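dumping these here so i dont lose them again. two proteins, back to back, each one seq then structure tokens. dont judge the mess
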Amino acid sequence: MPKTPPTAVVFDLGNVLIDWDPYAAIAAGVGPDEARRFLEAEDFDFLAWNLVQDAGGRWADAEEAVRRSHPHWAQHALAYRAHFLESLRGEVPGTADVVRDLHAAGVPLFGLTNWSDELYPHAPERFEVLALLDDVVVSGTEKVAKPDPRVFEILAERSGIALDRLAFVDDKQANVDAAAALGMDAILFTDAAALRTELRRRGLPV
């Protein structure tokens, strides 16, 4: 545990601040049963496909690739982007209040998200809490996604704060492990109450 509080806090967005559920978007296009079948398919990995766009790939290229390689899933894949707003289910309970409390106390705040740059603009339009972040590093814009160390280095460059002075909050263990390996004070997100406890242990005003 650091002896002094971190200088700033960095938040992942999806399923930390924003409740993201791709099933809801796909179901809006092809129905709940087909959406479930698609996401559970053994011959197609939706999350791996989505990560390509999070790392800078273009959606039109990705969708065309599915038409060629998995034509039986083409309509399912197209439904995700077509109904993307349905995947943004609202704020994760309580986490936005943590952001608001830190912001009110003057703690610098940043976002580091794996998100397609084509779809990211929907987030700040819909979630006012993101305006409280000093900056958001979007993987699709930078063309590199977590857990690649380079995206964390971009965060340090953009924030002007050394990685070992940043607390980092993410819901994926691989991203937390990558951040910790770079010297960040990494916290695995489970819920807002547990996050408050972790931040208080670090001397932060929440």
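---- next one ----
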Amino acid sequence: MLDNQDILFASLMGSRAVTLIQNANVVNNELAKHVLPVIPFLPLKNNTNVAVERGRAINVNDNWTTPNAIDQQKQFFPLSFSFKEKGVRWVFPYEPMINISSGNNIVKRNVAKQGENLIGTIKERWSRKDFDITVTGVLIGSIMQGKPEDCFPKDQFVQLFNFLKHSKELYVYSHPLELLGITKVVIEDYSFPFTKGENVQAYELKLVSDFSYDLLIKEKV
């Protein structure tokens, strides 16, 4: 069963998140039977039990609350940005979904009068494409309803935007990216779509991998 919080995240993250949420809940339930720590696949559950009276206004002093952020140690694949190689890292407060795609650039040549023994094209050379990385997630304020200055995750929003408007490469840290040798990215596109919930703001980032190249070749004497 999906509770209200699960449905909210499913609406923000897309239909595929429903299956992921259900699978994560099943796994967590099984792990709990063996007295193992629950693996936080997604920041879905609010451990605070809150009772709200019908017809009663919700305000800052009497309101549902959510964690300001999920601790990095409790995230499965935390993602963080840094302006410098060994600079201060900003960890995404809630673990986002990361999609990675790439491929090869192949130069093909069609040969005239191929005959039966020569099928298709001649592949002369190829090179590796950039890695295209899509990061989808949400920012969440600690107060669910109230004034914008109290509810909207403005601090998280400003911190993220400072990286997005950076005109140089960014250093990125996430286990799947490290396995692919990706340590630097550039921001290509980003969007903040309309999001239901006064304290929630979704985002989608389009990143492209960046690698250092030595274009000067020293001749051997």
